[in-house]
Write a structure and sequence with these properties.
This protein is an alpha/beta fold and 167 residues long. It is 46% helix and 13% strand. InterPro entries: HpcH-HpaI_aldolase (IPR050251), Pyrv/PenolPyrv_kinase-like_dom (IPR015813), Pyrv_kinase-like_dom_sf (IPR040442).
Length: 167
Amino acid sequence: MAEECLFWFVYTVAEAEKLIIDARFPPPRRRGFGFLIALERFGPNQTLTECLYQANDTLVTFIQIEKRGAIDSVEYVAAVDGGEAENCKTMPAGIRLAGNSISYPVQNGVLGPELKAGMDRILAATRKAGKTTGVYCKDSTQPREFAQEGYDMMVAVTRLHCNPTHN
């Protein structure tokens, strides 16, 4: 059973280190395991103990970079080590949020040079730290562009795009 934890509004190394600790189960970390009780009662054919023993090894942690403060410290945040079997990934999610945060919003589907520079900085920092980098895309055509730039993971569909009643 793989599990993902997505964290946003992470600006500093201290915040990144804390979330890594909070995302993992004891020992050695401090996350609660109440949600595993529901899995044992209603979920997959695993016991609570089996889930707990493998949980830390299958956990993927995403740090969402979307605010100016996070972009400004991305080199340091990306370098935070998750330890043990942790797979800490940095994800420059929400291009529109990042653009709005740095006062260069996406307009008519175009990423301005300032936003593009911020995205390039995120990609370079995560590459240097040996992390995986992903990005939310506006539609199904954009993932190819980001893949060619070196992004590892592209989210091309959201609830908005999946809702056939949305105009």
